[in-house]
Design a protein that fits this description.
Blueprint (H helix, E strand, L loop, with lengths): L7 H4 L18 H11 L3 E5 L6 H8 L6 E4 L6 H12 L4 E22 L2 E22 L2 H9 L6 E4 L6 H16 L4 E5 L6 H5 L7 E5 L5 H15 L1 E2 L4 H8 L5 H14 L10 E2 L5 H8 L2 H12 L10 E2 L5 E2 L1 H11 L5 E3 H11 L7 H17 L7 E4 L4 E4 L2 H9 L3
Parallel strand pairs: 1-6, 1-7, 2-5, 5-6, 8-9
Antiparallel strand pairs: 3-4, 10-11, 12-14, 13-14
Length: about 425
Amino acid sequence: MDSSELRVAKVFVAGGLPTITYNPRSTRNLEEEIQDYLDEGHKILSVSGPTKTGKTVLVRNVIPESDALWLSGGSINSSNDFWETIADKLGLFTGVEYSSDIKDEEWRTRQGSFGLGSIKAVFERKEIVGDTKGNKVSRARHVSNQVREALNGLLQPIVVDDFHYVPQDVQLEIVRSIKDLVFNGLRFVVIAVPHRAYDVVRVEKEMTGRVQQVEVGFWSTEELLGIPQKGFEALNLFDEGSLLSDRLAEESFASPHLMQDFCLQLCKQNGYRSGQTANARLAAPEWEEFFKQRSSMASKTAFDLLARGPRQRTDRQARKLKNGLEKDIYGVILEAISHTGPKVALTYEEIRSAVRDILASDIPQRHQVIRVLEAMSKIAKKDLEGEPVVDYDKELATLYISDPYFAFFLRWGTR
């Protein structure tokens, strides 16, 4: 295709399915692992990776939507939702109707004649006299039974995206109910964030050894650089010495989603919305302004909600930071997280160490910090739309920044 016919927004796709800039990350053999699972089966496949690291893009390239039953975990709030969604996709009907007819017939003959001029004719007609009696009986079959019958021997895989959104008790019901189907050969794939990757095992201990893991993981700098290399070449744009691409990769928090977005915005700031007929050079923007403009307003809203914390009647204690500012414990914890870089996975000890680094006053007690982390996680799940920006796993005593855009905001956003 002529470069001038390519639109920049079709080359660099943030949040969709890229084609030209799709990177299979061949050195990790991710596509091969998924294909091996499809060939072998008899397990559940869990594809895990941080938010916006290309899990869904990877699976869709190996298992296109036309070749599988794709379900969204965000729309499954009960096991019945799970079965009903599959029934709809398979076009199943759960109602069964039986009917019987009894005919009571009597024949009657009618005779007559008619004429037109010299032509006369005689007719004879037989009629059925009587009635038909019948009855109908209908009943509704349980949707799970109907679907289970249809899934036995089904060649299409079932893929549940965002499996971590499914309530844990519902996960347990689903996993228990499909164990025998998986044993019989049903391919069942779940896509989840990394610290929830073993939810299938955690909710059902009997699945230990019956879950195959494919960990997508964060992207390396080299893998991220594959995006601008392919995209700029297709658009006939030139990044001298790869200096611009290197800077974008540094700020992408190992996320291809952010890298795609940065490349798109860089092209637009250079005045390019489509490919060029002749090789055109890309110029560097004013970096601080560029990155601050990229910090999402949605992340600002999330930050404000977390900084405010749950509503309460009493005023919280203000603590003085080494930079001269005063913040309550929620503001202190967020500043401590930001102080780490921020890192996208932080143990309690790492957070406590960061709090010690930024505070000029005494640090909060352990139970106070944990209470704040749990409250933030609750706010992120219940008060914010989409993927929770933070998630505290009490069992692992680890806080995860689930959204790289939120991590990016902690580094560059105006708070």
